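Why should sequence recovery work at all? Because a backbone constrains its sequence more than one might expect. Tight turns favour small or flexible residues, buried strands favour hydrophobic ones, and helices have their own preferences. The token representation captures these environments compactly. In the example below, the structure is given first.
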């Protein structure tokens, strides 16, 4: 298990526990209108008419999305993992249901409201990563590939927590990148078309994937790690090629989500129902012959 330290955030100050979105080619973030701002200092994703999914280390019950402010009537923090659910009386009209499919090898879209960064395109460290710019409060979106999954342990408020994390690395994409910065830490195949990652300002944002024409949430942004490969940006930069980041696996906490927010559990497509019914009938017929 790896050990990482996260710190709670506030809306007006960044800390090592809050993550945001940056990348050389960001997507049209207006598409992802189910991701909003947690007033405790991070983001959250609407996953059903009455529930928002976020990170446990992001505090507060206030949620701002698409020009409207909502206040949760109840908050459910997972007892051990960095994931939380918030319930609202006022219904949301748009949401991204959870997906409980295996995400290994899949390209996810990471969405958040935190800061951003600029590429290093000149000087001694040109094309080795990014430099932090700030800019909390703007929805941004990039992509990356899930190449690893593990039970990561880190500190939240002085207590160690264990969270099953979907993990990705920041891969170089420009041929001008120096050889020692051409790091593909997990070895999953290099940069995606809109390669980017997480930095300060937006823990709790959604890691989304499009399935059957709908955006579904597969993970919740929670941590960053600056320990891989060369560090031209410094030990606390988190923006160099080879750095890694993680999102709480929604699939790993399917039972917990289903128990608290049953309305967020996707209903199988009619074709799936038909296949299940045929399978059940075949099983009954098989058993009846015994």
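From this structural description, the recovered sequence reads:
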């Amino acid at each position: 298990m790896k050990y990482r330290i996260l710190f709670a955030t506030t809306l007006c100050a960044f800390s090592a526990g809050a993550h945001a979105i940056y990348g050389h080619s960001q997507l049209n973030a207006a598409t992802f209108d189910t991701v909003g701002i947690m007033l405790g200092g991070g983001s959250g994703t609407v996953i059903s008419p009455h529930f928002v999914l976020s990170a446990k280390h992001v505090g507060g019950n206030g949620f701002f999305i698409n020009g409207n402010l909502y206040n949760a009537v109840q908050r459910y923090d997972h007892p051990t993992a960095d994931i939380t659910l918030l319930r609202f009386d006022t219904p949301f009209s748009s949401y991204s249901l959870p997906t409980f499919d295996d995400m290994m090898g899949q390209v996810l879209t990471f969405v958040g409201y935190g800061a951003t960064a600029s590429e290093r395109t000149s000087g001694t460290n040109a094309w080795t990563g990014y430099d932090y710019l700030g800019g909390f409060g703007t929805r941004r979106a990039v992509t990356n590939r899930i190449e690893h999954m593990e039970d990561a342990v880190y500190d939240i408020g002085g207590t160690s927590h264990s969270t099953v994390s979907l993990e990705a690395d920041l891969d170089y994409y420009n041929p001008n990148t120096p050889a020692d910065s051409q790091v593909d830490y997990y070895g999953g195949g290099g940069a995606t078309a809109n390669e980017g990652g997480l930095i300060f300002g937006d823990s709790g944002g959604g890691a989304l994937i499009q399935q059957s024409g709908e955006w579904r949430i597969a993970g919740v942004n929670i941590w960053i790690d600056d320990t891989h490969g060369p560090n031209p940006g410094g030990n606390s930069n988190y923006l160099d090629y080879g750095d890694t980041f993680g999102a709480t696996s929604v699939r790993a906490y399917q039972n917990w989500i289903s128990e608290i927010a049953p309305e967020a559990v996707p209903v199988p497509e009619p074709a799936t129902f038909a296949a299940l019914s045929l399978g059940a009938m075949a099983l009954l017929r098989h058993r009846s012959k015994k």
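A few observations help interpret the result. Residues 3-270 form a domain with the Thrombin, subunit H fold (CATH 2.40.10.120).
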